[in-house]
Amino acid sequence: MFDPPGPRGRRRSRIATVLAVLVLAALLAVAVRRFDAAGQLDPAKWRPFLTWPVWRYLLTGLWATVLAAAMTFLLAAVAGLGLAFGRMSSFPWPFRAYIEVMRTIPVLLLIYVVLFVLPAYGLDLPLFWKLVLPLAFSHAAQFAEVFRAGVLAVDRGQAEAGASLGLTQAQNVRMIVLPQAVRHVLPSLVSQTVGLLKDTALGYVVSYLELLQSGRVLANFNHLLIQTFLVVALIYLVVNASLSKLARHLEARSARSAR
Amino acid sequence: MSHLPALVDGFLTTLTLVALSFAGAFTLGLVVVVLRVGPLPVLRLVGTGYVETFQNIPLLVWLVLFVFGLPEIGVRFPLFTTAVVVISLYEAAYVAEALRSGVNTVARGQGEAARALGLTFGQSLRHVVVPQAARRVVQPLGNIGIALTMNTSLAAVAGVVELTASANRINLVEALPIPIFVGAGLCYALLAAGIGGLAGVLERRLAT
Lengths: 259, 208
Prior knowledge:
The structure holds two protein chains of two kinds.
Chain A lengths: L6 H31 L5 H4 L5 H36 L5 H10 L4 H11 L9 H27 L2 H9 L4 H31 L3 H4 L4 H12 L2 H34 L1
Chain B lengths: L3 H34 L3 H16 L2 H11 L9 H27 L2 H9 L4 H31 L3 H4 L4 H12 L2 H29 L3
Helix pairs in contact in B: 1-2, 1-4, 1-8, 2-4, 3-4, 4-6, 5-6, 6-9, 8-9
């Protein structure tokens, strides 16, 4: 949207770059001053995060996050696949209703139901499931839409060719349609997983000891609230940015192979 | 149902949260996307860094950091303001991404033609790209609005008494879980349907 700049343009953009860097540096300086004035940059407040016990505790939390995310992924993917084919069947409306309703209801509301309503009816789940079940119910609807998009993207001739080879409908779906559909949606599945991993932070609400809840427990113990939560945020950033990068990589690869 | 007013209060709080945060997210997202598609490499880097940082850290972590962390460095805001700011900052990253993919769907030749006519970056953005991109970003922005509505429920965790929190509180007193939670769920569905409808109307309006 802009030409390669000429000499005057280059000079102008150099000036603008210097100005932008100055403004950014000033903003950063203000933030650092504030942290320093409050004593939050004191090395003694950061040193604990160079010790193994603290990291072991946080990494245990990360492992619990990964476990919860993996179980949610498994349940939501299987249920989502069922919902997607249900919605494309000759009797779509209950599946459609489930998907449309679940896509507008906050996960937190579902978690409150599991947390405060089900025990009143004598159903008190373990903490892990109190987090995973609401997440799975909610994400199943999103997975369903991803899978449906994938199946619709597979050329109809593929299924017709399968049928003319004498495959049954189930064989056709399993051997012809699904493998291609999954390949189509692989990048979206990975970015769904980022969203799912972020939602496991709701373990904070059900007090399941995943990464964020571990951070809270640690901060209560060492009274280093800002430092602890900044480190927790950094761990989330590293994990999710790697996943996002993988999604972009897959997308670029499938774009290449489609050509 | 003597608690109905409390539920209505919660609904109105959610509505205010949604409206203010969306306005904030849209404004900030606009700024970020201009940085990201603009000609200065430094600012492009800043825009990309912003989007990556906010998209890859859970909203709840941001809320906890701002609500409990800021007072520790002597910055104090009312809880509701903090919630609006955090949700705006977080959703702005998604708005920026939606706007960017809208800009990218405008055929490259359009930008080149604008350049060939001698328009500057700002002019080609204003007269050529934005009018064409506007219509294509309405649906994605509507979806972000719906996601934002659901995300405002996280403010309950930080202590804002919005719809989810008030449903939970009423249930603790009344112990009538099914009507209360179904009612709250319906309110959210209604809000989402409203946003979806609004996006549809807007899209048709921009279709000319």
